[in-house]
Amino acid sequence: MSVHASPELLTAQTPDAVAARGLPALPQHVAILSFEGPDRYSSIGGLGTRVSALARALGKAGHAVELFFVGDPAMRPIEAWAAGVTLRRWCGWISAQHPRNAYDGEAEKIADCEASLPAYLVDSVVAPAAANGQRVLIMAEEWQMANVAIAVDARLRERGLRAAATILWNASNTYGFERIDWLALQRAAAVTAVSRFMKFELAQWHVPALVVPNGIDERLLRGADPAIVAEFREAFNGKPTLFKIGRFDPDKNWLQAIDALAELRSAGIPARLVVRGVRDPYSETVFGRAHDRGMAVERMAYEGTDRHKLIAGLAQTEAPVVHLRPFLDEQTLFALYAASDAVLANSGKEPFGLVGLEVMAAGGIAVCGSTGEEYADPFVNALVCDTSDGNELATYLRTLYADPVLRGELRARGAQTAAHYTWNRVLATLQRKVAYVESRFTG
Question: What is the per-residue pLDDT for 443?
Answer without folding.
Answer: 46
